[in-house]
């Protein structure tokens, strides 16, 4: 195992998809993916994820698919990440992974679940047909997100008092992709988005990250008017934050929101105007763009 670890580490550091030695590496990876030792199989998956080319994707996609059905969560996580890389390289290969995703999106293990959500998001971004297929899973994703909100403290997943914020952000991103342009999916997620927006702790950065993703989701889907107002109000609170990065993100998002809900944004004009006093020139520049755009929309 130690020799293989050094060899695969060297391959990950020194090779890329343009190297001719990939034919030799492919055979080694194929053998090790079927190894009885989970750590050797895991090394092979990590290497494939790092140096994967289109040819390697086609040659090894079948082995990755087999490992998606493994009973070992360690291998399932790595296989899902490899599948995502394969889909990025050769989008037509996503068909072989789709049948496994319903079960993987119901996994209890957070590591498997977050990688499954990442893979589904990538597939949905690549294909409108796949997006329509996975809209059936919106209720399942909403239930998972609600469970994360209602769950008590867990030392394994808790970050600054928030339950697995990484998984929450990933699920919110997938909901945004699935809800865009679809009334039924948007209606199914309205309640949970309101819950996230009102119950998430805002004193820590992890909470702000979740709220930011929630705002993006609300603005992209066909959300209720009240929910859009709530999202713009969250951005208004971000503008009062002492962290200039959060203020910058809020201004950037408000710029995109002016066309969506002009009236809701208008309530925060005075707060935005105060940002002209900010010492950071990038924030002042955004404020200038904001008022130019706002004036243009009003004249139009």
Describe the structure in your own words:
The mean pLDDT is 85. This protein has helices at 2-14, 22-33, 38-51, 54-68, 73-89, 98-104, 110-126, 128-134, 138-150, 165-179, 183-199, 205-220, 225-239, 244-257, 262-266, 269-274, 281-299; strands spanning 158-159, 162-163. 74% of the residues lie in helices and 1% in strands. Strands 1-2 form a two-stranded antiparallel ribbon. Helix 2 runs parallel beside helix 4, helix 11 (183-199) runs antiparallel to helix 12 and helix 12 (205-220) runs parallel beside helix 14 (244-257). The protein is an all-alpha fold and 300 residues long. It contains 17 helices and 2 strands.
What are its keywords?
single chain; 300 residues; mainly alpha; two-stranded antiparallel ribbon; 17 helices; 2 strands
Overall mean pLDDT stands at 85
Structural class: mainly alpha
Number of strands: 2
End-to-end gap: 68 Å
Strand content: under 5%
Q: What kind of sheet is the major sheet? A: 2 strands, antiparallel
Helix content estimate: over 70%
How large, in whole angstroms, is the Cα Rg?
22 Å
Which stretches of 5+ consecutive residues score pLDDT under 50?
Answer: none
Element string (H = helix, E = strand):
HHHHHHHHHEEHHHHHHHH
Describe the strand arrangement of the main beta sheet, using strand numbers.
Answer: 1-2
Helices, by number, come to 17
Instruction: Using the alpha-carbon principal axes, give the shape.
Output: elongated
């Amino acid at each position: 195992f130690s020799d293989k670890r050094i060899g695969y580490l060297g391959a990950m550091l020194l090779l890329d998809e343009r190297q001719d030695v990939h034919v030799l590496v492919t055979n080694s990876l194929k053998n090790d993916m079927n190894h009885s030792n989970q750590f050797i199989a895991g090394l092979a998956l990590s290497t494939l994820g790092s140096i994967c080319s289109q040819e390697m994707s086609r040659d090894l996609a079948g082995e990755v698919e087999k490992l998606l059905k493994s009973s070992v969560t360690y291998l399932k996580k790595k296989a899902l990440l490899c599948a995502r890389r394969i889909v990025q390289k050769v989008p037509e290969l996503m068909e072989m992974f789709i049948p496994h995703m319903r079960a993987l999106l119901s996994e209890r293990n957070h590591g498997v679940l977050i990688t499954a959500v990442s893979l589904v998001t990538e597939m949905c971004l690549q294909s409108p047909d796949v997006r329509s297929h996975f809209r059936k899973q919106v209720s399942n994703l909403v239930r998972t997100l609600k469970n994360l909100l209602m769950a008590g403290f867990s030392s394994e997943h808790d970050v600054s008092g928030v339950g697995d914020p990484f998984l929450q952000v990933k699920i919110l991103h997938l909901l945004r992709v699935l809800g865009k342009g679809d009334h039924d999916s948007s209606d199914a997620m309205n309640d949970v988005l309101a819950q996230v927006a009102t119950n998430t702790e805002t004193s820590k950065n992890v909470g702000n990250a979740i709220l930011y993703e929630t705002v993006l989701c609300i603005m992209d889907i066909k959300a209720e008017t009240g929910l859009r107002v709530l999202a713009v109000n969250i951005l208004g609170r971000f503008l009062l934050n002492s962290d200039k990065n959060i203020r910058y993100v809020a201004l950037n998002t408000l710029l995109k929101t002016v066309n969506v809900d002009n009236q809701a944004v208008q309530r925060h004009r005075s707060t935005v105007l105060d940002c002209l006093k900010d010492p950071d020139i990038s924030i002042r520049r955004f404020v200038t763009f904001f008022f130019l755009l706002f004036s243009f929309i009003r004249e139009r």
